Amino acid sequence: MYFGAAATLLLFIGGLEARYFGKEIGALSQLQHGVRGRVFAVDSRTLYLHDLHYDGEGPAAFFYVGTSKSPSATGAIRLRDERGGSGPLRRYRGEGITLSLPDGKSLKDVNWFSIWCDEYAINFGSVDIPRSLEYPKPAKVGGLRGVHGVSSDPVVVVDAQTLLVPNFSYDGEAPDAKFWVGRGDKPSPQGIRIPDENGKESPLRKYDKKTIVLTLPGELTVFDIGHFAVWCEEFTVNFGHIPLPRASLANVPPSLKMLGVSPQSKLNCEVLYDELAFEVRWAVAGDSIVMQLVAKLEDGEYMSFGPSGVETKTQMVGGDPTVAWVNMTTLKGNAEDYYLDAKSQCAGVRGSCPDWRLGGEKANSVRLLNAALVNGYSIVTYQRPLRAADFLDKPIFTNTSQAIIWALGPLNSKLEVSYHHHFTKGDKFIEFGRPPVWNCPMPEGEDEHRAPAHRDVPTRPPVEEQTAIIKPNPVPTPRPVPKVEPWDIPAIQCYEPPDGVFYAQMGPTGGKQGYSAITGHVGWGISWYINGLLIPEINVVRGKKYTFVVEGGTDPDVPAKYHPFYITNDPVGGYLHKTDAEKKSIEIYAGVRRARNGDLTPTGVGRLCNWTPDNNGPEADEFPSFGAYQRSLTLVCEEGNPGVVTWIPDKNTPDTVYYQCFTHRYLGWKINVLDECDATEAEESRVVETVALPADLMGEESIQ
Ligand SMILES: *[C@@H]1O[C@H](CO)[C@@H](O)[C@H](O)[C@H]1NC(C)=O
Ligand SMILES: *[C@@H]1O[C@H](CO)[C@@H](O)[C@H](O)[C@H]1NC(C)=O
Ligand SMILES: *[C@@H]1O[C@H](CO)[C@@H](O)[C@H](O)[C@H]1NC(C)=O
Question: Hey, what domains does the chain have and what are their CATH numbers?
Answer without folding.
Answer: 21-128 (no CATH), 139-249 (no CATH), 263-453 (2.60.40.1210), 501-697 (2.60.40)
